[in-house]
Amino acid sequence: MKNNLLPIAKEGWNYILGAISLFVIFAFLDLDFLQFFAFLATIFFIFVFRNPERQHLYYQENSVVSPVDGVVASIKELKDDKYAYKIEIDSSYFNVSLLRTPFSSSIESIEKQNGARLSTLSSLSKKINENSELIFIDKNSNTAKVSHRVKQSFMGINIKAREFQNFNQGSRYGVMVNGVTTLYLPQNFRLNISVGSELVASETLVGYFTTAID
User: Fold this and answer.
1) CA dihedral angle for residue 52, residue 58, residue 61, residue 64, rounded to 10 degrees
2) How confident is the model at residue 211 (pLDDT cuts 50, 70, 90)?
3) Residue of 48, 119, 104, 94 whose CA lies nearest to 198
4) Taking the CB of residue 28, how many other CB atoms lie within 10 A of it?
5) What whole-number distance in Å separates Cα of residue 169 and Cα of residue 27?
6) Does 63-209 carry CATH code 2.70.70.10?
7) 122-132: pLDDT as tens digits
8) 71, 160, 175, 52: which is closest to 110 by C-alpha?
9) Contacts of 70 by beta carbon, 8 Å cutoff, 6+ apart
10) Smallest Cα–Cα separation from 69: which of 95, 106, 49?
11) b or e along 30-48 (b: 16 or more beta carbons within 10 Å of the residue's beta carbon)?
């Protein structure tokens, strides 16, 4: 996943080829309306699964960048021994769907829960929608938890990573179309964003770990 440099994420190929096949079939059957619909579907899937090569910005070693494209919906301070900040990032169909590693690290754990794909307007969405949770840890034992929860979407969350796998900052590790990402950051973290900030995965600086954890 992290070496996938094609302009379209491979998770989208089946959707695009399916839409193109329908376009050809409808054209052969002279079904103009359905042919036009298949054409729009093809353009939609190409847009949703676009895979731009992002500029690698050389922040200092303890930097954390956004794992997703989206808008900061909320920032909460937590009274927790492990995590001090909870940051929710809302992503839509207009955002690039690729998920990227927030800092050079290995994956300590991965948990995935299959579920529904309800709109966030439903009070049940936070409880029963499909979600994945990853914990990243760096060589200084700094940790961050990243939770992805899908909203209304035609596909689930696709995580192409395994526990204890090493990633460089900004590396691709999955795809989520239309969802909410929550970052949990520790006490030794200095935030560089605010509510309403527009984030670009692997390019927007979220902040820094200030000291190493013993």
Assistant:
1) -40
2) confident
3) 94
4) 9
5) 45
6) yes
7) 889 989 999 99
8) 160
9) 89, 90, 91, 92, 95, 181, 198, 199
10) 95
11) eeeeebeebbebbeebeeb
* Tokens of residue 85, six digits: 């900040």
132 and 111 in contact (C-beta within 8 Å)?
A: yes
Phi/psi of residue 187, nearest 5 degrees: -60, -35
Domain boundaries along the sequence of the chain: 10-48, 63-209
Residue 138 is encoded by which pair of tokens? 């760096």
Q: What is the pLDDT of residue 1?
A: 47
Confidence of residue 42 (pLDDT cuts 50, 70, 90): very high
Token couple for 90: 């809302």
- Which residue blocks in 29-152 are alpha helix, DSSP H? 32-48, 125-128
Give the sign of the dihedral formed by CA 124, CA 70, CA 114, CA 154. positive
Range of weakest confidence among 58-62, 72-76, 191-195:
58-62
Question: What pTM does this model have?
Answer: 0.91
**If DSSP codes are grouped into helix, strand and coil, which group holds residue 146?**
strand
Q: Which two tokens stand for residue 1?
A: 């996943």
